[in-house]
């Protein structure tokens, strides 16, 4: 890469660092003001001061604000998880959904909802545990005096297919209860409240904070296993820890929002095309990009199709697939 390319990439990186927080703020304000009942900035300010004592205050403080904050954390966790998995696998197509981590959380949640409805209050914990256990199974299946990225991806694809089959089987057996889980499987934030936010926030914040010490090993992995070992890195241990961290983040998001796809795939991949592979910038920009995307997409999904509220997972899948194909075509043009 010549000096001109380096300068252009640095300029793009600085522009993203400057505008990403502004985009997140703009998406949040849009989410607060736009909906079946539009509100103004003045209404938002009054609601903050009156603490929900008016009709607008109830809409903003009890319905939209917790939903937006939950969407931020969901998007941030999914994007950070995808960025880490892409680094661990050395594959820009890796994300929590493709390698089966999200499916593990989904299966645990489906079992909890349709087979053991009396334990439905354990749904978030079950989804997280399922995602976490799936990551351990994938790593164990890929282990053979080491776990290469290719083996992990192949094991993940196989586990993903198996979990999908088991999930479909559970829904067939309990077909009379399937309606209750369809919206969750589609992925969405409908009805998410301060209760969901308070459950998710500690886990999400811990996971996102743990991405800070993960930056250095993620960068070293870009050099290749042999080079990283020569620099004194315990590459297998670091790969396992990064994979578990990515699973922790994905499980946290799945536990509240269901199976939302493409965020962990498209966001870090798009940012990587623009600024490169340096995780000092890739991770924080992915976090802000994922948060902005989910908040904006959720606002569109609940507002543009009135009176129907479209699950945000369906909208992101419909938009994410063609957008990702465009990114693939432009991959060779952005350096």
UniProtKB/TrEMBL annotation:
Keywords annotated in UniProt: Cell membrane, Membrane, Transmembrane, Transmembrane helix, Transport
Q: Which residues cross the membrane?
A: 68-85, 97-116, 122-140, 152-174, 194-219, 240-267, 279-296, 308-328
Record-linked InterPro entries: ABC_BtuC-like, ABC_transptr_permease_BtuC
Q: Which SUPFAM superfamilies match?
A: ABC transporter involved in vitamin B12 uptake, BtuC (SSF81345)
Q: How does it sit in the membrane?
A: Multi-pass membrane protein
UniProt key word Membrane: yes
**Where is the protein found, in the record's own terms?**
Cell membrane
Q: Which family does the UniProt entry place this protein in?
A: Belongs to the binding-protein-dependent transport system permease family. FecCD subfamily.
* Stated name of the protein: FecCD family ABC transporter permease
Which organism is this protein's natural source?
Paenibacillus terreus
């Amino acid at each position: 890469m010549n000096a001109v390319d380096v300068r252009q990439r640095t300029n793009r990186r600085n522009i993203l660092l400057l505008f990403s927080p502004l985009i997140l703020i703009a998406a949040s304000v849009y989410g607060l003001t736009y909906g079946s009942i539009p509100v103004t900035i003045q209404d938002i300010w009054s609601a903050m001061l009156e603490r929900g004592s008016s009709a607008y205050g109830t809409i903003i403080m009890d319905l939209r604000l917790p939903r937006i904050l939950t969407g931020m954390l969901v998007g941030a966790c999914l994007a950070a998880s995808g960025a880490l998995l892409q680094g661990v696998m050395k594959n820009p197509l890796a994300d929590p959904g493709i390698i089966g981590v999200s499916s593990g959380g989904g299966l645990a949640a489906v079992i909890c909802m349709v087979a053991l409805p009396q334990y439905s209050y354990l749904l978030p914990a079950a989804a997280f545990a399922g995602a976490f256990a799936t990551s351990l199974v994938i790593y164990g299946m890929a282990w053979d005096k080491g776990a290469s990225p290719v083996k992990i991806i192949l094991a993940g694809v196989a586990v993903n297919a198996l979990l999908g089959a088991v999930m479909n089987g559970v829904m067939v057996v309990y077909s009379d209860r399937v309606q209750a889980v369809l919206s969750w499987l589609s992925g969405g934030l409908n009805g998410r409240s301060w209760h969901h936010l308070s459950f998710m926030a500690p886990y999400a914040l811990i996971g996102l904070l743990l991405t800070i010490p993960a930056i250095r090993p993620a960068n070293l992995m870009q050099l290749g296993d042999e080079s990283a070992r020569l620099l004194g890195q315990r590459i297998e241990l670091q790969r396992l820890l990064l994979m578990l961290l990515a699973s922790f983040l994905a499980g946290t998001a799945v536990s509240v929002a269901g199976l939302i796809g493409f965020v962990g795939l498209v966001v870090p991949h798009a940012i990587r095309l623009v600024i490169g592979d340096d995780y000092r910038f890739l991770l924080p920009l992915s976090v802000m990009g994922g948060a902005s995307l989910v908040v904006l997409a959720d606002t569109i999904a609940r507002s543009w199709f009135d009176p129907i509220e479209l699950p945000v997972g369906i909208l992101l899948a419909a938009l994410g697939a063609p957008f990702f194909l465009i990114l693939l075509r432009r991959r060779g043009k952005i350096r």
